[in-house]
Amino acid sequence: MIEMQDVWKTYANGTHALQGVSVKIDRNEFVYIVGPSGAGKSTFMKLIYREETPTKGQISVGGFNIGKLKARKIPYVRRNIGVVFQDFRLLPRMTAYENIAFAMEVIEAPKKVIKKRVNEVLDLVGLKSKANREPSQLSGGEQQRIAIARAIVNNPAVIIADEPTGNLDPETSWGIMQLLDEINFRGTTIVMATHNRDIVNKMRKRVLAIENGNIVRDQVRGEYGYEF
């Protein structure tokens, strides 16, 4: 599903965020990206959904060469990649329903299809009863569930989750992880950057550890393995 071949990312200030990274992530895998702050985790994630482009090397996602993708094709590829952020990034003046529906409206899905699918994902994340509430009327955990619903509404092949539990308490975080695990079980590849040791150690998925722009550990059913 995702492959990086000798990928380097050097920013304008000379910082080598990634240095010769090569890795494969298979369809339906759940992979944690761990490592200290500034190690290159966010850059790794941004390269996958084409927020950044590699300085050197190749990246393919679902068969598309991301680095060489023409601008007009980027929106089509991003339909297959859902992104979940730490700070939710919901549109404040829209209801939960409208926030999710917006992701389908931008690809011009028919209204009937939108209504059916939005209700399906609201049901999946357990918030159908709060469809008409704005983000300010929802708890942090509920906002993140809506953000996840928005990320999956177009049936993406991949979910990129960048610190999705970073602003949540432990109990709420665990609920979010159970939801992501269910989404993964249904066939979606998930790549998640996190500093949450307890979640990584409890769920025992594949772990990629990044330090100084290099993958230093690739462990099946891995543990967090860091002291910060």
Automatic annotation (TrEMBL):
One of its GO terms (cellular component) is plasma membrane. The keyword Ubl conjugation does not apply. GO terms for molecular function: ATP binding; ATP hydrolysis activity; transmembrane transporter activity. Keywords: ATP-binding, Cell cycle, Cell division, Cell membrane, Membrane, Nucleotide-binding, Transport. It is a peripheral membrane protein. Residues 2-228 form the ABC transporter domain. Belongs to the ABC transporter superfamily. This is Cell division ATP-binding protein FtsE.
